[in-house]
Design goal:
There is one protein chain. By secondary structure, the chain is mainly beta. The chain has one domain. It has 2 helices and 16 strands. The strands form 4 sheets. Strands 1, 5, 8, 10, 11 and 13 form a 6-stranded mixed sheet that branches. Strands 6-14-9-12 form a 4-stranded antiparallel sheet, with no helix packed on it. Strand 10 and strand 11 form a beta hairpin. The protein is globular. Keywords: Disulfide bond, Glycoprotein, Repeat, Signal.
Length: 260
Amino acid sequence: VSTVFTPGNFQGFALVNRQRTNRVSSGFTVEVSTEGTQLSYTSFDYLGQEPHYWQLPDAYQGDKEESSSARSKRAEQGAVRKLDEERKSSVRPTRGSADAQKDDPLFWKLPELYTGEKVGSYGGKLKFTVSYVAGARGTLIDDGDVQIIGNDITLVARQPWPRRAGGSRETQRFEITFTEGNWRRPDGMPATREHLLMVLADLDDILIRATFSSEMISSSLSELSMDVSVPNYSGLEQSLGVEQCLCPPGYLGLSCQSLR
């Protein structure tokens, strides 16, 4: 699955703070480059120092259990179900947005396709590239790079990378694996396998950090994909971390996490 931006069509993308109490959904522009179109937004000076994340649209959220006809079609095609979102975005929150407040960081929120029942993503990877330009007077903000939220549980992942104070574009490729060793609770304590599977069983949100400095000029997100396993043979790499249990009456799902 991929998203292509066209001038004037932002495909429902937004920027949110960590608590998701503030949401920026307007003021974006779509730019055309040699790599394709990219979603852009540029007034971080109105948002203060709190990190923000890209929030993906509704199409990537909600119930992700496939219908029997869809599963049959996928089996016939022998294709691995893989969520693949390609976009490059520059962020610029504007004062005109009613739900944006100063000092709130921004996050990219992934669309509905990346949420819902995602136990099959255990052991797989979330891959993306972030790029940003910070002002020379800003200070670096230390925060988690990705947050996943589900079943009233929040887990945070970091991928250390060297960053300069500001003035030049910083670009980094991320590969975050969905195994408990790569995730922590917000209080810094390690996540357990149970924590991670509970989040993936009913994934409400995936938030990717968009704010890296107290003085942001632009921020972009591109080359986004998320691995999801399927039961049929596809010819691609096996997903060895995903269990498939024999469920008692009344339960279903790879880990018997859902009620019939």
